[in-house]
Design brief:
624 residues, alpha/beta, Rossmann fold, six-stranded mixed β-sheet, 18 strands
């Protein structure tokens, strides 16, 4: 049992918790929610005894084993699999003691140590570490790559694997799905359901919370409020409580009417496709929980597009990729009312497709015909890295529209919770969530009629994710969305395209069908391969083998070339990080030099991400 009694906690001059009490029992799985800056990370630091409360007592068993997912990873020459195994400190101690006993020829000591290793399940640790890596999306070829060779997002995955490897009674996970695709998210979901200890989980993925947790702890007015049930249960309970507050009643009813109107409009035009019916059900559900979000600081709408032609964009047998195509012969017509979700594992080309449609990456073949009146709003995964950190939210909007009144900009930015002096502060000290909100605001301000969004919820808290979902529901234009957030997908798109094995096809089904497909994919793939193999005659087998050898040779050459490019980029990034650690660089006279370095860093990060995506696609093809 973990008990907080009359805990008060400050961060500098800011009071985060004011005489709160909370009890978490052994084996409970608890979701921790609250707006960015309310104290979720500080609560984790308190539980890890990295900080002490200002007042009150924190009690838990003295022998409680704790494990925490770190948010940063320093460079290391350790292999990925060794880095994960390092999470099991007791195993490493036993391993060292066994080596010393062998050196000393101490057979009695060795016998005892091997018995201890057996009790610790040490003989299976290599296999368990590899299973964790595989589940989180690392191909076998990556197991022995050094930590230094991975980009930031993949290092976070390594941190997660190490935290899961660490034997624990209390597991603290802070946004573990931020850098995962849907496949890895589903795998983690199953792993956590089997976890026997106590879990405290911070996540903005409400679908993930709904499956994994049994309780919700919400940061509200410097208090910790415990709700029984998952996130959906929390919304209903909070909605019921807030519905009793007369001052909020009219706002609640107004929001309900907005959603009900949207449900009616969508039902009127929806086909009988299963995903469309699923979306109607999800939207109807949102009517009941609308009051739970009335007190959110985020209230924005996507501005009405200036023009909305019937057809925005059409592709004719396009091939996309970098030096080699990832997707080939793809044709589609994007209409004014298109709402498309892209499904598929990392490396299949989803992000690459959005970059091509946005005009950020050239075609390898085929044609794209864009309407003269198309206006694209592109939200890239690494868009925050391209923000001018020495500018302010106000200046960034004024740079886009220089003849707009300041008050109009302030009103607009207020919907994204940038208020008062905050709109005039430089963004260099903004949090990741604040930068993500600002990047989204810049896109919304430009009144796009086609939105291309690549993991837009990364770094956003649950309230902002909810506001984004509501905003996209009412968006008048067209949407193509890549996201691991199942709730966002369920509520904003009505058609799915599956990117797999170089092809892009319509997926007939909803997200539940896709999840079942992922869980059964390995079994079905094995059966399919056996059936195909039985149908081939000897001549066809020889021809196919020769073709596969040629393809594999080309792929290996491409993989080697990409690895060299990625390593070269990483070396340059390491050099830039060293330059950025020099405090002299932030003096006023170095402003131009700092901007140049930051732009170079953003370009390298973007290029590295593209190279890694192509590398993953090539690896998967080589394995097949």
């Amino acid at each position: 049992m973990i008990s907080l009694q009359d805990i008060s906690l400050r961060l500098g001059s800011q009071l985060l918790l004011d005489e709160v009490g909370l009890t978490v029992y052994a084996g409970q799985k608890v979701g921790i929610i609250g707006r960015n800056g309310t104290g979720k990370t500080s609560l984790f630091k308190l539980l890890m005894e990295e900080i002490s409360p200002d007042t009150g007592e924190l009690d838990f068993p003295k022998d409680l084993r704790k494990s925490q997912m770190l948010q940063e990873t320093k460079g290391s020459t350790r292999s990925a699999v060794d880095f994960v195994i390092d999470g099991d400190v007791k195993f490493r101690v036993l391993e060292k003691q066994i080596a010393e006993a062998e050196q000393a020829n101490n057979d009695n000591k060795l016998a005892q140590l091997h018995a201890d290793l057996d009790l610790h399940d040490g003989w299976t640790i290599q296999n368990r570490a590899e299973q964790l890596l595989s589940g989180l999306g690392f191909p076998p070829e990556d197991f022995n790559r050094t930590v230094n060779e991975f980009s930031g997002g993949w290092r976070i995955r390594l941190n997660l694997a190490q935290a899961l490897m660490t034997p624990s009674d209390l597991l603290l996970l802070d946004e573990p799905t931020n850098h995962l695709d849907l496949e890895a998210t589903l795998w983690l979901q199953q792993w956590l359901l089997r976890y026997q200890g106590t879990l405290l989980l911070v996540s903005h993925d409400r679908s993930f919370l709904d499956v994994v947790v049994s309780h919700i702890v919400s940061f509200e007015n410097k208090k910790l409020i415990l709700y029984r049930g998952n996130y959906s249960d929390y919304e209903k309970q909070k909605a019921e409580r807030m519905a009793q507050q007369q001052a909020e009643y009219e706002k609640q009813q107004s929001r309900k009417k907005e959603i009900e109107s949207f449900v009616r409009r969508f039902r009127a035009k929806a086909s009988k496709a299963k995903q469309a019916q699923s979306r109607i059900k999800e939207l109807s559900r949102m009517v009941d929980i609308a009051p739970a979000h009335i007190d959110s600081p985020f209230h924005f709408k996507f501005l009405e597009p200036t023009k909305l032609p019937p057809s925005l964009l059409a592709t004719d047998k396009i091939s996309i990729g970098y030096e080699e195509p990832i997707i080939q012969n793809f044709s589609i017509n994007i209409r004014a009312d298109s709402r498309i979700g892209l499904l598929g594992s990392n490396g299949q080309g989803k992000s690459t497709l959005l970059k091509v449609l946005a005009g950020k990456l050239p075609l390898l073949g085929g044609e794209i015909n864009r309407s003269d009146h198309i206006k694209i709003g592109y939200c890239a995964q690494h868009q925050v890295d391209e923000l001018d950190i020495l500018s302010t939210p106000m200046k960034l909007i004024q740079k886009i529209s220089n003849n707009v009144r300041e008050q109009e900009i302030r009103n607009f930015l207020g919907g994204f919770d940038f208020r008062g002096d905050r709109v005039a502060e430089t963004i260099e000290h903004f949090s990741g969530g604040e930068k993500s909100r600002l990047a989204l605001a810049l896109v919304v301000w430009q009144k796009p009629n086609l939105l291309l969004m690549d993991e837009p919820t990364n770094h956003l808290d649950l309230e902002m994710c909810h506001s984004l979902t509501v905003g996209l529901q009412a968006f008048a234009g067209s949407l193509i969305l890549v996201s691991h957030d199942r709730h966002l997908l369920s509520n904003t798109v009505d058609q799915f395209l599956l990117v797999k094995d170089g092809k892009l096809d319509i997926f007939e089904g909803d997200l539940n069908d896709y999840e079942k497909l992922l869980l059964e994919s390995n079994k079905s793939d094995n059966k399919t391969n056996k059936v195909k193999a039985g149908k081939l005659n000897k001549k066809e087998t020889r021809q196919q083998a020769a073709e596969q050898r040629n393809q594999l040779k080309s792929l290996k050459a491409l993989i080697s070339k990409l690895e060299k490019s990625i390593q070269s980029n990483q070396t340059q990034l390491n050099s830039i990080e060293e330059q950025l650690s020099d405090s002299a660089l932030y003096e006023d006279k170095q402003k131009d030099q700092l901007n140049l370095i930051l732009k170079e860093r953003a370009q390298l990060l973007s290029t590295t991400s593209e190279l890694e995506e192509e590398w993953l696609g090539a690896i998967e093809k080589a394995e097949q």
